[in-house]
Every structure is written in C-alpha cells, then in structure tokens.
Design a protein that fits this description.
The chain is 37% helix and 18% strand. It starts with a helix and ends in a 5-residue tail after the last helix. The protein is an alpha/beta fold. It is built from 13 helices and twelve strands. Strand 4 (89-93), helix 4 and strand 5 form a beta-alpha-beta unit.
C-alpha cells in the first residue's frame, strides 16, 4: 500500500468506530481466518467490529476464535442490513467484486461508508476507497499480517490473531505446497508459531474431523472420476441425488477436486457439483504448471480466481455443462 493510503487509514482508525468485516459467499479458511483475525485486531485496539458473512461457513472452521460471533446475512437479513447501514467503515476481505457476496451485494452497493478492500485475486473492481490488492500473495491472511504491520501495530498480534492468520495461510497455500508460498510466508508462519499458534493441532482440526457421510461422499466422487489422458485432465461429477444420499453438509466437498491432480500426468482437474436449490452447477478447477484456470473460468464458466485454482458456475444442466467442458479441451493447451 502507498504511504499516503496507510496514513489515511490510520486517521480513519484513530477514533473508535463501528466496523463491518465481510468475507465472500461460501467462505473458506482464508476468508474466515482473515475476517476473524481483523475482527480480533480491531476489537483489541478499541473499535466495535462485527463479521457478517453472506452465508454460513463450513463446520470444520467452527473452532476458530469467535466464529460463534459471526452473523449470517442469509439468516438475519433485516438485522444485518441495519447493522451495515449504521457502520462507519466496511472491510471486504478475500474477494474483489461485490457480486461475490451473492444477495448481500444489493445492500453493500448502497452503503455510504468508506470501503477498504484487502484481497489477492485478479482484476479488482473499484468500489473501495482504499484497496490493498496483490496477486503475488498466496492468501489474504498473509496480507492481513502485512496490513497490521503497515499500521505499525504488529505488537498487537497475539495468539488469537495469529491463530486466525495461520489458518488462512495454511489452507490457501495447500498446506504450504502451492507456488506462492515464499520464504517470507514461512518467516511469517514462524513468528505466528512463536506467538503460541498450535501448528500441530490446527491441521487436525481442519482436515481430520470428517463425518462418516462425508467420507462416503468422497468415495462416490472418486468412483465418478473420469480421466482423459490425451488432455491431461481428470474431472468429477456429483449430482444433487448423490449429495442427498450422503446427507451433504457445507464443506463436505472441500478439496475433492485436488484428487485429480494427484494422478500422474494430470495437469487439469475439475469437479462439477449440482445444487438444485440454487439452480446452478458449481465448478472448481485446479491446475499444475502454466495452464491458467482463472482465465478459463472467467472466459467460459462465469467465475475466476487464481492461475492454478479457480471456481465457476453454470446455469445449464449437468449434461450440457460437462459437454461444454469436454468440447473446450480440444481447443486449449494443457
């Protein structure tokens, strides 16, 4: 961030304010980690923050400090709309386009309070008064660490804030495996561990608490996997009927798309999940190497994200969506 912007934000935060912190719809570990880290920081320095998520977050993130204080817009529209209208400042974290908040966009787009965007995705919109946007970072949580440091408040980072930041870095870096995990990332993580972060327990809380039904759903997903060696591609299809059969809960399909990339010679993986309540097919893409799934999702599937990890959606039925995907494979180089 520019020095002038940091000075202006410091002035904004010089007196106690009512502050809303917003993650994207269907928040993941980085979204929840960054919003809760900022929540605890702002609370500690004398503000009145509130985290308002567009919809609920997965159960495997419910252990995060003060996750029980997060308000869900989808469940309490009138209450959360009133709170938003009374706020002096709005932070939006881990997204850069208001449509990523779903129905909440209508409320956010009408607010008069200044916005501060902190995000690491490509092509940010210009709705924010202050924007800290940088695609070089592997997580918004790493940027939150920097943001607090920019404000000359790094000494305020305690075990609680560090735990939230660590969670987002861990999840969005693929447990430190993705290319944007730098030496600086590891140095920050070392500082967080020195502050008391339970780095040996957090992976268990995040990844090793699956339900029996979610494991059965994973089994079905792997049975459904289609491998196309000539296009270095693997994809999975899950129907609404299959989700219902295994009593799907939010978060149960998290990470399944990555199994495709674990196959030797596969450089592009996708999962197509039918959600009849929303009348869409939700899609996740992952890649290895130079193939840009962000542009692929933006160009063809109403989505976007990062070069090697992106999401999208289709309003066609499953058959037509998968047919379109397969047809596109012949026109791209993987």
């Amino acid at each position: 961030m520019k020095k002038e912007e940091i000075e202006s934000i410091n002035q904004l935060l010089a007196n106690p304010k009512k502050i809303a912190i917003i993650p994207h719809r269907s928040p993941d570990g980085d979204a929840m980690g960054s919003t809760l880290a900022l929540y605890h920081f702002l609370l500690k320095v004398g503000h009145q923050p509130v985290v308002i998520a567009p919809n609920d977050f997965p159960e495997f993130l419910a252990w995060l400090p003060s996750s029980d204080q997060v308000l869900i817009f989808e469940n309490e529209k009138e209450k959360t709309t009133q709170i938003l209208n009374e706020c002096d400042l709005i932070f939006t974290l881990d997204f850069n386009a208001l449509h990523r908040t779903g129905e909440m966009e209508k409320v956010l787009s009408q607010l008069q309070a200044p916005f501060i965007m902190i995000d690491h995705h490509q092509s940010p919109e210009n709705y924010a008064t202050y924007t800290y946007s940088d695609t070089q970072f592997g997580s918004t949580c790493e940027m939150i660490y920097n943001f607090i440091s920019f404000l000359d408040k790094k000494n305020q980072i305690d075990k609680t804030i560090a735990t939230c930041i660590y969670t987002g870095i861990l999840t969005d870096s693929g447990s430190f495996r993705f290319p944007k995990t730098t030496g600086t990332t590891h140095r920050i993580v070392a500082e967080l561990i020195d502050l008391g972060v339970e780095n040996t327990n957090i992976p268990t809380w995040l990844f090793d608490n699956s339900s029996y039904n979610s494991i059965q759903l994973l089994g079905r997903a792997l049975q459904n996997m289609i491998v196309i060696p000539e296009y270095k591609t693997a994809y999975i299809v899950l129907s609404q009927k299959e989700l219902d059969e295994f009593h799907y809960q939010k978060g149960d399909t998290e990470g399944i798309v990555n199994y495709g990339l674990s196959i030797k010679g596969i450089h592009l993986a996708a999962i197509f999940i039918e959600h009849k309540d929303e009348n869409i097919i939700k899609i996740s893409f992952r890649s290895q190497g130079d193939f840009d799934v962000n542009q692929f999702a933006r160009n063809h599937f109403n989505g976007g994200g990062h070069i090697n990890a992106a999401g999208g959606k289709s309003y066609e039925n499953m058959h037509e969506t998968v047919r379109k995907f397969r047809d596109l494979l012949s026109s791209i180089t993987i």
